[in-house]
Amino acid sequence: MTTTPPAPPDDLLGADFYLYEALLPDDERKILRKARAFLRDEVKPMVNRYWDKGEFPMELIEKFRGSGLTALSYEGYGEHLPAASHLLGGMLAMEMSRVDASVATFFGVHNGLSFYSIYTGGDQEQRERWLPAMASMEKIGAFAMTEPLGGSDVSGGMRTTAKLQGDTWVLNGAKRWIGNATFADHVVVWARDVDDNQVKGFIVEKGTPGFMPVKIEGKIALRIVQNAEIALNDVRVPEANRLQNINSFRDVAEILRFTRSGVAWQALGVMIGAYELALAYAKERQQFGRPIAGFQMVQDLLVKSLGDITASWGMLVQLARLQDQGIFRDDHSALAKGFTTSRMREVVAFSREIFGGNGIVLDYDIARFFADAEALYSYEGTRQMQTLIVGKSITGQSAFV
């Protein structure tokens, strides 16, 4: 006896070619479709305007507060209990990037990097103090690790320092590319303890003397994200604001393993968003008296893109299963991030190519996807760094230096 598989949702335009969404249980599929409608109706109409201006739509925070999307993956904090599966969490990140990578990045910094740092790195008192307001988005968080002179090597070469004086830590140094930092209510700052040379985490509240975030101007990608360079000059932070369960960079790596998988899902969303735009345009655009969707070379680009999407989606479905089973490793996350962002680069290039000259103007959306992909390709570790992580895993030999 054979059964006919369900058709993909009409609003995915066939991007879910292998029907991955059907793997979600009914209750989680309803959450995903609710999120899809919210992003389509509330977020999509505003993104080009703010991307062009390089500004963040602050009214979006209020919209997110009523969406029920924050902290879904965290037991005890989201609106839907028990905590959502990692598959749903990944698909939600995908849906956000399918509309706009900047909004997905804002949400990922707040709901991923910052929230997860406190959720795993803080003690119970700290979680109770900070997380409820973050879950409701009454307070917005940020995450400061990258430095002006340190990116991929920051684990062993962090220049920002922390010195304990009595029951207060004094932070000095600088951070760069810190999303949300210009308006966040608090920033999780990572610094090297000068006494034991270990990396520790500190929650620095907005307005703390000596803490000076300055917006980075002139970006060509993720223009909605308010990235900042932060100067820390004798910033005094109480011991109560030090993340009590973070004692070395090994603990920090646990956080990055989780959030890196989120970037892989974001890359998938960018692929889907670009592919959908290209497919719709190809069906409408007339050349030589017929739609360009009927041209062999255009179909070649579309099918290659669909293959990249389908392969990446399958990898991420299994990655989510490993997370749910508790057997998720750093190299699993690294392979997914490196692979999906590489495929994303190809898909956005193919999609932009289908638009021809129209592909370089914001009116058609594809230019935004094309530009934003470059930021996702680089942040949370470049493809080369992910390669070295996986290479060490499979060979037993470190090639980092």
From TrEMBL:
Q: Which cofactor does it need?
A: FAD
Any idea which UniProt keywords this protein has? FAD, Flavoprotein, Oxidoreductase
Residue limits of the Acyl-CoA oxidase/dehydrogenase middle domain? 142-235
Q: Does the keyword Translocase apply?
A: no
| The keyword Flavoprotein appears for this protein | yes
User: InterPro entries in the record, alphabetically?
Assistant: ACX4-like, Acyl-CoA_DH_CS, Acyl-CoA_Oxase/DH_mid-dom, Acyl-CoA_Oxase/DH_mid-dom_sf, AcylCo_DH-like_C, AcylCo_DH/oxidase_C, AcylCoA_DH/ox_N, AcylCoA_DH/ox_N_sf
Q: Which residues form the signal peptide?
A: none
Q: Outline the extent of the Acyl-CoA dehydrogenase/oxidase N-terminal domain.
A: 26-138
List the Gene3D superfamilies: Acyl-CoA dehydrogenase/oxidase, N-terminal domain, Butyryl-CoA Dehydrogenase, subunit A, domain 2, Butyryl-CoA Dehydrogenase, subunit A, domain 3
Membrane-crossing segments per the record: none
Which part of the chain is the Acyl-CoA dehydrogenase/oxidase C-terminal domain? 251-394
A Pfam family (short name) is Acyl-CoA_dh_M
| Record-linked PANTHER family | ACYL-COA DEHYDROGENASE, ACYL-COENZYME A OXIDASE
What protein family does this chain belong to? Belongs to the acyl-CoA dehydrogenase family.
List the protein's name.
Acyl-CoA dehydrogenase family protein
Can you name the source organism? Streptomyces mirabilis
